[in-house]
Structures are given as structure tokens and as C-alpha cells.
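Morning!

This is the sequence you dropped in the shared folder:
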Amino acid sequence: MSNDLRELWLKLERKGRGDFLATRDGSRSYRQLISMIETCCGIFDGHGLTFGDRVLIIVKDDFTASASFLAALLDGLVPVMLSPESRLTRIEAVARSTEASLLISDDVVDCGHDCPKHVLNATVGSGGQAGTIRKLFRRKAPTDQVREPQCPDHTSDQLAYILFTSGTTDRPNGVQITYGNLFSHLDTLCRLFGYDAQSRIFNATPLAHTDGLVQGPLLAAWSGAALVRPGPFQISDMEPWLNFIRSSGATHLIGNPTMLTLIERLAEHRDYFDSAGFKGVISTGGVLPEPVWKAFEAGFGTNVWNVYGMTETVANALYAGNGAAFGAWGSIGRPVDCEARLG
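The structure's back. C-alpha cells below.
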């Protein structure tokens, strides 16, 4: 048995007033994160949740979504993050397949069959007439109590969370990630890219995507870093978005091949990554074309790494770019802390 959860909780407590989440509208501290986690744990008690119960999280606010996910993880529950844009049919399918016990959501979701749900603003609603989810949510009175997460002992192969791949509605594909999968992968990322308590991770990827969740709030919490959430990447907002990289003190940018291609072609300036603390750009979600890679590094004067993996590999498996542990520049990459087989 091990207790990476207790280690994670102690890391959060040590950060105190340091930034956990920074946006263009302001920042939230680790102290505020701890307060929200303790509030969530009280909510779990009020709904009678026990070890291994599933908690669906469908929240637009990045801080609330991150805190809810971390609270469930630390309390020995199994969080399931869904996009706030999810259709009702997808929510219903995921709820059925995971046998969810609680939904944390911004809005009342019409799930039918007298399905209560708890909203973090302390209101409780019930579903309407759809009648398609049976025994989805347990009817328990909400609580005003707060407490620290239980951080239970666990084995490396016990389930930590479930993340659903995109492109399905009535038959979603849920990937089960164990504690061992998660924490070993976070250690790999910290070692390869130098994440620590001074890092500021600039990542706009949606939290319902593995690269947004793992290389976002989970990586920030594990390394003691700050997560910078600039809002969606849009061509119409490109210059303010890029300028926020420097003004936020970002040390790492998490992007993807399409984003990097657009930045290289359309950005008005070349000084967004000039700050002394910036370490490099990490392109995920696909193979970065060699011409884009070459032009980006030369034009912006920064390291670019290409990493590739799937939800099933937590986030990444193959790594390419500058560094002894990485595959050749311009390649799909080398497996690190895992095995890769050609089928």
C-alpha cells in the first residue's frame, strides 16, 4: 500500500498563498483551493458517498472544476470530468456507465427520475420528466460541514479517475486511470520538463481533455506549480492571448500542432517567449510537422518538444525534441518510462 494522496495533500497545504490558478481576470491561491476541497468533502459526506463512488463534474469555471476533481481524488472517490458543452444524452450515458452517485454542475441538469444534484453555490435541484436515469443520484441532505480529505491508503492498481474520449454520445468510451498510472506519469513530466514550485504552466486545453486535465491542474498540484488558464485560443484574440504568456510569467506553454501552426503564421511579434524563466513549448495531441517545428523554434527562439500519447497512456508516451531522454528532433519521439510496440 502507498499514500501518494497524502503526499499530494501535504504539497497543497505547503503552498499557502501561492498561486494555484491564474487567469486574465485574476488568480486563486492554494489556500483557496484547500478551502474549496474541504467544502467539497463536506458535500460528499452530506450525500453519503464512500470510497470508490463516482462523481461527475460538469462545471464551466476552471477553479471550481479543478478543486472538485482534486477533492474527489483525494477523498478516495472516482472523479469523472465532462465538458460543460456535453449534451444530455452524453451525460446520461456516462452517468449510467459509471454508476455515478453525485453530479457537481453549474446548472440544473434535467436528468429525470427525481434525480437530485448538488451545486457548489449550495442550491439543490431535482430533475424533470426525462425519466431515463435510474437511481443516478442518492437523495441526501446537503451539509454545511467541511473537512480535510481522507487520503486513503491505496494500491497502485486501484482506480483513481475515469476520463471519456471524445466523439461518442450514447456509447462513450471511458478510460480508467489507476493511482500508479497517474502519479508515475506526473513524476515523468516533472523530470523531463523541469516542473517545480516556481513553474507556471500555460495551458488552454479543456479540462475534459487528458492534456488539459493531466498537464493542467493535476500536474500543477503535484509539482506545486501555478496553472495559467488564458481562455480558449482564438485567432481574433491571438495577440492578447499571446501577450498573456509573458505577463503571466509562464514557464511552459502546452499547445498542439494546429495552435503552433497558426501562431507561427499569424502572430504579429516574436518576443512572447523572451522572458528569462520561459523553458519551452510542449506540443501535444498529434505529430508536429517538421516545417512548423523548425520555423517555430527559429522564429520565436524557444525550445519546442513534441509529445504524443492517448488518454489510455494518461497523457503522453512518446517524447521528441532537445534533451538526452528525447527522440530525434522532428520525429514522433521516444518512449519514456513505458514501452512502445509497432503493430
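Headline: The two ends are 35 Å apart (CA to CA).

More detail when I'm at my desk.
O.
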